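Students often ask why inverse folding is considered easier than folding. One informal answer: many sequences map to the same fold, so there is more than one right answer. In these notes we will look at a single instance of the problem. The structure comes first.
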């Protein structure tokens, strides 16, 4: 089987006898370690053949355009945030909270705009509605892109999922959706307080994580 990495575009082969049949499986790109999903189920859309592939491939194939950079200049030490929320009232509420917390914030009007901005900048914080650019929360292209980032890059980004389906600060859902924090819409007026708590917990976790790695020689 011929495989193309949707991140770095490297081509490689998998022996046919080692390809699982009739299911979706993943493997790491041998060059950039991006997680690649492959669907061998009959009569289903192949991995990457949906809108997701169209959007991500369009971004990967696009040429350099300086106008797509989210910031011209960010002062050293200033944290940055990307806001992906279609509802203008909710967006204004979240943005006010982010700026009150000291984040240099930019908004994306569409998944394509968000992905283009992420090409140029690694954001400290991304707040994204599960319905950003889609009616199906399982087809959120920005979340899928973030899920497939190499871990060294993904670990630098605190991702907040805004949802009407799940409870605020549900850690199991956060793990399942590959985000750092879940915020329910009914708690959106308290998002600043929720963000501060979630970010503090995350920093504590990774401090302990790095200390443990250091003790075992992992760093």
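Output (designed amino acids):
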């Amino acid at each position: 089987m011929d495989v193309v990495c949707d991140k770095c575009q490297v081509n490689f082969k998998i022996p046919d006898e080692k390809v699982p049949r009739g299911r979706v499986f993943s493997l790491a790109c041998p060059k950039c370690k991006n997680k690649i999903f492959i669907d061998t189920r009959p009569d289903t859309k192949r991995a990457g053949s949906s809108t997701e592939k169209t959007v991500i491939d369009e971004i990967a194939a696009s040429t350099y355009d300086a106008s797509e950079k989210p910031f011209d200049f960010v002062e050293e030490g200033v944290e940055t945030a990307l806001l992906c929320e279609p509802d203008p009232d909710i967006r204004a509420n979240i943005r006010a909270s982010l700026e009150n917390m000291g984040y240099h914030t930019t908004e994306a009007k569409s998944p394509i705009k968000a992905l283009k901005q992420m090409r140029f900048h690694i954001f400290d914080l991304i707040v994204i509605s599960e319905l950003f650019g889609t009616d199906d929360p399982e087809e959120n292209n920005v979340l899928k892109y973030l899920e497939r980032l190499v871990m060294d890059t993904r670990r630098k980004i605190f991702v907040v999922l805004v949802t009407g389906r799940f409870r605020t600060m549900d850690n199991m859902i956060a793990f399942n959706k590959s985000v750092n924090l879940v915020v329910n819409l009914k708690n959106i007026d308290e998002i600043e307080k929720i963000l501060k708590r979630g970010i503090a917990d995350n920093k504590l976790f990774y401090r302990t994580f790095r200390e443990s790695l250091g003790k075992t020689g992992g760093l």
